[in-house]
Design goal:
Layout lengths: L10 H13 L2 H16 L8 E3 L8 H15 L1 H12 L5 H4 L7 H29 L4 E3 L9 H30 L4 H14 L6 H21 L3 H25 L4
Parallel strand pairs: 1-2
């Protein structure tokens, strides 16, 4: 018996698909970040808050490492989900279609590095301005202990963030919203607001900075149709924040 042909999903089905994907991933993070910001802002000035990234899960190093690796693996499940959904409809290799393959690694690398330099400089400026204006929390980028596995795990977390955010916010969402008939500007703004939303736990400043980053990344994708440079740029940004910044801050005695 031959397989039944795949029926293209309706607009309603695509809409519910988007809702489910976001509810399982970054949309849920955005709602929780908003609740966290409201909780913080109604108790004290935002500038007095502390946002800790990559916290330890156990005082025992090997248990902590096990938790970290488990979280890394399971947190990538939404990436597998959107790749499968894109493979099912409209079909074809989802890696190639969203430009997350390895056809041109060197070009992807230098473009990602250029984006990293542009966004990185802007990120430092937005953070400093946000702290000065009192709309950004103090951010601690590594709450893990000093173990032999700390830096490798932080680098894996940075890579995870790049894969998760760029594959969903750019590769998947741009394709699905286009099929719903959204305009280019509506897609750009919606994706940028989503990107900013799950950083709200860090304050208003990071929301603005990440939304601006979303506009730049979205514009780049519309021109190049490649997610790979965005993943690489995102990895460099987080790797610098998770690993390089704490080392430099410790060496020069700089605090938040």
């Amino acid at each position: 018996m031959s397989a039944l042909p795949l029926v293209p999903p309706s607009r309603r089905a695509i809409g519910w698909e988007i809702v489910i994907v976001l509810a399982l991933s970054l949309g849920r993070s955005g709602v929780n970040a908003l609740i966290n910001l409201i909780d913080l802002a109604t108790r004290a000035p935002i500038s007095q808050g502390q946002a800790s990234l990559n916290g330890s899960a156990s005082p025992r190093p090997w248990i902590d490492l096990t938790y970290q690796l488990s979280e890394l693996v399971f947190s990538l499940a939404p990436v597998a989900l959107v790749l499968w959904l894109l493979w099912r409809f409209p079909g074809g290799d989802p890696f190639r279609r969203m430009g997350m393959d390895l056809r041109r690694p060197w070009r992807d690398a230098w473009q990602g590095a250029a984006l990293f330099l542009v966004i990185g400089a802007g990120t430092l400026g937005v953070y400093a301005a946000g702290r000065a204006l009192g709309i950004t929390t103090a951010i601690s980028t590594s709450g893990l202990g000093q173990y032999w596995w700390t830096v490798p795990v932080l680098l894996l977390l940075a890579l995870r963030n790049g894969l998760l955010e760029e594959s969903i916010v750019i590769g998947y969402l741009f394709e699905r919203l286009r099929r719903l008939g959204w305009s280019t500007w509506a897609i750009l703004v919606a994706a940028a607001v989503l990107r900013g939303s799950y950083h709200l736990y860090q304050g208003i400043g990071p929301f603005i900075g990440n939304a601006a980053m979303g506009l730049i990344f979205g514009w780049f994708y519309l021109r190049m149709r490649r997610v790979a440079p965005l993943v690489f740029a995102h990895f460099l940004l987080d790797a610098a924040g998770f690993v390089a910044y704490p080392l430099l801050a410790s060496a020069f005695g700089y605090g938040s």
